[in-house]
Design a protein that fits this description.
Blueprint lengths: L2 H5 L2 H5 L5 H13 L1 H20 L5 H5 L5 E5 L2 E6 L2 E6 L3 H12 L4 E2 L4 H12 L15 H11 L7 E2 H7 L6 H10 L11 E2 L12 H11 L3 H10 L3 E4 L4 E3 L14 E4 L2 H6 L3 E2 L10
Parallel strand pairs: 1-4, 5-6, 8-10
Antiparallel strand pairs: 1-2, 2-3, 7-8, 7-9
Length: 288
């Protein structure tokens, strides 16, 4: 074997990639050629030097859950990473994979969801709600962040209108944008878009069907049938004869009003013309 042929195989010899016959030929040549044998040692030293340059990742990163994962919690599929919940769907695992790849451009691997995140999803589904959900939806506009904040501020067992959410988000004219966000909400349940209803009354539509929306609200303590009845009568607010305060029908304070003291109103202006003040807790004037 000539030196040139041996030198082109030195690194492959070191990494054991040569066939038995080639390895035997190169080794025989190295025993008789001092120059080529020194070249083999030079390649070994270079390889070791390159390995020494590798920097181990910080312990905090190695110990953390780094990557994109998914798991099932009760009847929904949840995508998550080390920073929180990234997506939830009530449809199927395939739906989750497809929507996740489209939004984030990454694949998901099956893994057990951390207990803290699992408890949040379970609480949201069971009707207990989550006050400060740990979500990571990537880049978001100021409006999206504001809408998400407004949604999580809606108390468990109560509903608000799209107009109310727009007002609380600092964008009173962005009602359509709010409705669009709710329809495309990638972390439903924990960010409760199901607590938003149309200004015209009733429960309204939902990405996973009105039946599930009604079930979620009922679990939280909302009388959905009563909401439908009020919507049919055109009633949007309930006032109290004793306090002269009017609220959203699902407001905790409105539910305490005795039947003989309840005053129905079709508009906020109607209530204020009759001397009623808006509730400071549910802030119904925001939806007027």
């Amino acid at each position: 074997m000539r030196c040139r042929s041996a030198l082109t195989r030195v690194d492959a010899l070191r990494t054991r990639e040569l066939s038995p016959d080639e390895r035997s030929e190169v080794e025989s040549h190295l025993k008789t050629c001092k120059s080529c044998d020194e070249s083999l040692h030079d390649v070994d030293r270079l390889a070791n030097a390159v390995k020494a340059l590798a920097i181990a990742p910080p312990r905090s990163c190695k110990d953390a859950l780094c990557g994109d994962y998914f798991d099932r919690v009760d009847d929904v599929w949840v995508a998550f990473n080390s920073d929180g919940i990234r997506m939830i769907t009530a449809r199927s695992a395939d739906d989750l994979h497809e929507r996740y790849a489209k939004r984030y451009g990454r694949d998901l691997q099956r893994a057990a969801i951390p207990e803290a995140l699992k408890r949040e999803v379970a609480a949201a589904l069971s009707g207990h709600g989550v006050s400060t959900p740990h979500v990571d939806i990537g880049e978001a506009s100021e409006l999206e962040i504001a809408v998400q904040r407004a949604l999580t501020s809606i108390p468990v067992g109560e509903v608000r209108t799209y107009a109310w959410v727009a007002q609380q988000s600092g964008n009173p004219r962005a009602i359509r944008a709010v409705a669009s966000y709710c329809a495309k909400n990638v972390v439903p349940f924990v960010v409760p878009c199901h607590r938003v209803v149309p200004s015209s009354g009733g429960v309204g539509k939902y990405a996973f069907g009105s039946k599930l929306k009604r079930e979620l609200l009922a679990r939280e303590g909302v009388d959905v049938d009563a909401l439908d009845e009020l919507a049919g009568e055109g009633v949007r607010y309930i006032g109290s004869k004793t306090t002269k305060i009017y609220c959203f029908p699902t407001c905790r304070d409105a539910r305490r009003i005795r039947e003989e003291n309840r005053v129905p109103f079709h508009r906020a202006g109607e209530a204020e013309q009759k001397g009623f003040r808006p509730c400071r807790r549910c802030r119904p004037v925001a939806a007027a």
